[in-house]
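Why do we care about 3D structure at all? Because function follows from shape, and shape follows, mostly, from sequence. That is the central idea of this module. The next example makes it concrete: a single protein chain, its amino acid sequence, and then its structure expressed as tokens.
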Amino acid sequence: MNEIDRAPIEDTHFGAITVRLNGQDGLEVDGEAIPRVTLERDPAAEADPQIAIGTRDPAHLTMRLDGAPVGLLPAKGRLTRHSYRVDVEYDGASYRLVPDSVPSSRLTRDGTHLGDFSSDGDETVIAEWREDLELRPADAAIGYALAAAFGTGAQPMWMMIVDGVTSALP
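And the structure:
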């Protein structure tokens, strides 16, 4: 994917993890203790410069975990933080990455909060795992891929309204 060899991210539970972006065309996440994830955007789809992977349209995205197709459903991303959620169905589990503050997003599996991710939609992803849970390698693979592809965090709606009003004032 990326021509430059990136230094792996050192995850507290899963060791070295590497995130590689190929522009807005796709990404790859892998590590010794996690399954390999690829996420690709259809090259015929128009790329939105605000989104690392280029689109939130599931019809133009293909995600695979260890080569197996994964159900991926990013929400449209409008006014509320919740509208920036990304849902994944894998191996009978429902994952969701949803912004919960300005810089970070919460990863859940079947409604259970697994940890928090921070990323600007690039190859640098920070994960802070909950200590009281049994984590699966797929949790890390999915969390890192979604954070890198879609970024994390979002402003609260009231802050966006204030920004809109102040930018409209002379």
